Amino acid sequence: MTSTTKRVLTLIKTGAAGLLGLLIMYMVLAALPKPMFAYRAVYQNYHVWSDRPIPPEVTTVLDDVTRRLRTSVLHDRNTPVEIFFCNEPWRLWLYGRAFSTRLGGAADVWLTRQVFIRASDIPANRIHSPGRGPIADAAQRPLSYFIAHEITHSDVSRSFGRTVMLRYPEWLLEGYADYVGKGGDFDFDANRALLRAGARELDRDRSGLYRGFHLKVAYLLDKKGWTLQQVFERAPAEAELDAWLNAPQ
Q: Would you say which domain of life the source belongs to (predicted)?
């Protein structure tokens, strides 16, 4: 082995060790966020942290979260829920696990099952838009929707395993979280008509919304009478669901 080869191998090993060290540091920071959030409030089973003072109206928001979660057959009100408001964008980037500041919220389904929410106007029950325009479907997606949506991801992880994101289709995972998050505020027939018309709102890739996924979950649960367990055990192919929903009534 030449001296040049040895130097190259040494550099590779040093670089790999450095990357491993950074990965371990990130995992520790991501798994232990509480010291980085100066403010805390407890209400019922909700434990809330924030990098800014938490206004008293948070209890009203959480009451609405509870109302929405009653839609879920998985949620246990006795289970503590940890919620972190990330008003500074870097916190959402770091703790949201997606390395993005544009998320509405995120749930760590792999390890802690903690929920992280972007900068919000808690008294107004709304999140701040990540862009210049308003939040899409804002009337149906207040702050309490985003919190309930992410809690549902954690509940699914508890019920079906920490690797749910690898084992189940996106339409099911996001569709059920939207189903619960909206707390019944969903017009099945109107959304089915929009799907048949090829409306942008029902296309996840074009709109960024989960209404099309929600429609599929609602069809199986509310129209076909499947249990959630049955849906997870034998989730149909998405193309098959599209065919059912587009079939003549």
A: Bacteria
